[in-house]
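Ops channel
N.P.: pipeline sanity check, posting one input/output pair.
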């Protein structure tokens, strides 16, 4: 009987690269927590020959360059994704603060299907987008990293670290504990919050090769949206007046560990309302901009309970 691969037996592990797109020779890898997703995939465009034939057939087809991708959905937990967050923000932690910057981080990522002994490895993996979603009623805080890379290789056995560092077991953050502030004042009527960091990566290719030559970052685009109960016209007035503000939200897990995410310069980019029988909510999208004082457009502060 054929063994059908089970998602419950999948293992994802990673190590930061020394040189982009190059396999780490003696990797000290770490298992990373996740909630599934599509796994390491390679897309290739198809190119049909334009030749005309009397029998009306397609005479030839070629496949285009390889475009490796890897979506990694997750439930946020303390200290689990700190190294990957560096890749998402193009920064490095300094005294427990991570600012969005220009430092490139790339990774070897191995996806192991341990029950059928199949192992896929992405080289040159870089974070193209990071999303984070906070929903009401104590829901788990979820998100996703979306990687693009240089190539996918499929060794017959694991190419990673047989003794990879196990993932931690820290509790998942939920939406019960924390805060959301605008200009240091609690925005207490919010019901949901979403955040997106798009690095606008672009893969480049050269003649006589179907693999990626390099990946270049574009402008960092940081956007999001808040859903809140409609209690006043403050956000409408601020939207119409293009009023800038600071947004900050803190997440706290059951042990007391916190991440505080600060976006020092925000402008509202819309305001729409949903009218229901019992309540009216408003959707308030926002756009982050560079702040000269903070020298960034977003930063994360971590604090571990002592």
């Amino acid at each position: 009987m054929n063994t059908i691969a089970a998602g419950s037996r999948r293992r994802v592990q990673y190590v930061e690269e020394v040189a982009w797109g190059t396999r780490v020779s003696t990797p000290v890898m770490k298992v990373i927590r996740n909630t599934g997703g599509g796994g390491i995939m390679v897309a290739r465009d198809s190119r049909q020959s334009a030749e005309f034939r009397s029998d009306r057939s397609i005479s030839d087809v070629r496949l285009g360059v390889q475009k490796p991708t890897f979506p990694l959905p997750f439930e946020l937990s303390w200290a689990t994704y700190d190294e990957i967050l560096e890749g998402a923000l193009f920064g490095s932690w300094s005294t427990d603060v991570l600012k969005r910057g220009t430092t490139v981080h790339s990774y070897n990522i191995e996806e192991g299907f341990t029950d059928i002994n199949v192992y896929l490895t992405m080289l040159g993996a870089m974070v193209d987008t990071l999303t984070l979603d906070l929903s009401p009623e104590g829901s788990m805080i979820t998100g996703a990293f979306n990687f693009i890379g240089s190539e996918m290789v499929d060794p017959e056995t694991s190419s990673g670290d047989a003794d990879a560092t196990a993932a931690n077991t820290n509790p998942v953050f939920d939406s019960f504990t924390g805060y959301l502030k605008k200009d240091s004042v609690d925005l207490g009527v919010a019901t949901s919050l979403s955040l997106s960091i798009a690095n606008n990566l672009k893969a480049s290719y050269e003649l006589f090769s179907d693999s990626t030559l390099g990946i270049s970052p574009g402008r960092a685009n940081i956007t999001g949206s808040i859903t809140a109960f409609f209690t006043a016209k403050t956000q409408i007035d601020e939207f119409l007046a293009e009023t800038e503000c600071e947004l900050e939200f803190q997440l706290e897990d059951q042990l007391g560990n916190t991440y505080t995410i600060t976006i020092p310069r925000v402008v509202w980019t819309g305001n729409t309302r949903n009218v229901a029988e019992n309540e009216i909510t408003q959707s308030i999208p926002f756009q982050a901009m560079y702040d000269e004082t903070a020298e960034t457009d977003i930063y994360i502060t971590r604090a571990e309970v002592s």
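N.P.: looks fine end to end. The chain has two helices and 22 strands.
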